[in-house]
Amino acid sequence: MSKHGRVLVAMSGGIDSTVTAMMLHEQGYEVVGITMKTWDYASSGSSKKETGCCSLDSINDARQVAVEMGFHHFIIDIREDFGDFVIDNFVDEYMAGRTPNPCVLCNTHIKWSSLLKRADAMDCEFIATGHYAIVNDLDGRKFVSKAKDDHKDQSYVLWGLSQECLSRSRFPLGPYTKPEVRKMALDYGYEELSKKAESYEICFVPDNDYRGFLKRRVENLEEKVSGGLFVNKHGEIIGKHKGYPFYTIGQRKGLGQAFGKPMYVTKINAESNTVVLGEVEDLLKNGMEVYKVNSMKYSEIPHNFEAVTQVRYNSSGTLSKISNLEGKVSVEFYADVRGVAPGQSAVFYEGNDVVGGGIIYKSL
Question: Quick check: is 106 catalytic?
Fold first, then answer.
């Protein structure tokens, strides 16, 4: 009988999830390792060497640690579920003129669902991942708080987790910094692991060329969207572009032509295949609407509530007024925010605590 219970640990083969498994094993949990095969690079059409969480090397690395530490390890294939939901949404969002965040969607709808299903099947009370975050409790509700390491904090990508997920989740790395985690790996005797580089790529776009990925996924895409127009904020035509799905809000480089001054993508209209360009000040917004909201710290997002709103991973956030309307949240920024992109996540913080979050519907 284990000291703390039986825990299913998601192991990608990287340093964070591996140290997570080691820590829990050392603390007296009965650890069961699981590696989820979400994608194979051959399907992406990329010529880049297979690396990252879905590679055979990473899977073997995870299995080797489990064998050496003396706990069970399993590999599950969730490529079909992942592809149907995450990749289809990724393509659909770009085709609708929005900028998706597939990692948030994968966390909240695919990985946790798969983990909970397998945890129940294997009689595991808890699930654990290598995310840098902390789970806290208020009046019986679970919520995510920021990790100790500001540079590695991942609370932003966990806003969509349900109360059931949070009540069974463990994030052992939350109280530690990345250098401390690397030292742990070294202390455990895994010198090579302690030096392992991190991957920041989307797993199914290994070369970071999302435009090429879209071309391979959508039949005759270039023909369907060619001949679109660049317009300024007054609607005046100022050039031609290669197709609206190939641009993102805030983009300056790669516009394909010179305008005599720096110009940025400020709006994308999928229906008319037009891309609005403006100067840097045109990217500044004083509000937005957010939908598909998940309230985490409270039973619902408070109305007329002040919170720090973060619209990008690794941004510092902006103090805002949150108005909870029927089916959506309206956000008024107290200072203009640059590059609010529909399709991205908005997360509301009270101090270090995640109050909730949602998907940006439109900027105001």
Answer: yes
Q: Are residues 29 and 61 in the same domain?
A: yes
What is the full DSSP assignment across 213-251? HHHHHSTTHHHHHTTEEEE-TTS-EEEEES-GGG--TT-
The model's pTM is 0.90
- How many domains does the structure of the chain reveal? 3
Domain around 103:
6-130+172-194
Torsion, CA 65, CA 67, CA 69, CA 75, rounded to 10? 60
Question: Which residue among 53, 54, 165, 203 is the active-site one?
Answer: 203
Instruction: Assess whether 203 carries a catalytic annotation.
Output: yes
Going by pLDDT thresholds of 50, 70 and 90, the confidence category of residue 47 is very low
Average pLDDT across the chain, whole number: 89
Q: At what angle do helices 178-187 and 15-27 cross, to 10 degrees?
A: 60
pLDDT at residue 262 is higher than 80: yes
Q: What is the pLDDT of residue 202?
A: 75
User: In this structure, are 112 and 239 located in the same domain?
Assistant: no
Which position among 53, 54, 106, 124 bears the catalytic label? Answer: 106
Whole-number Cα distances in Å, 207 to 42, 123, 202: 12, 39, 9
Percent of the chain residues past pLDDT 90, beyond the cut: 64
Residue 19: partners with Cβ closer than 8 Å, 6 or more residues away:
130, 173, 181, 184, 185, 188
User: What is the tens place of the pLDDT at every residue in 207-226?
Assistant: 778 889 999 999 999 888 98
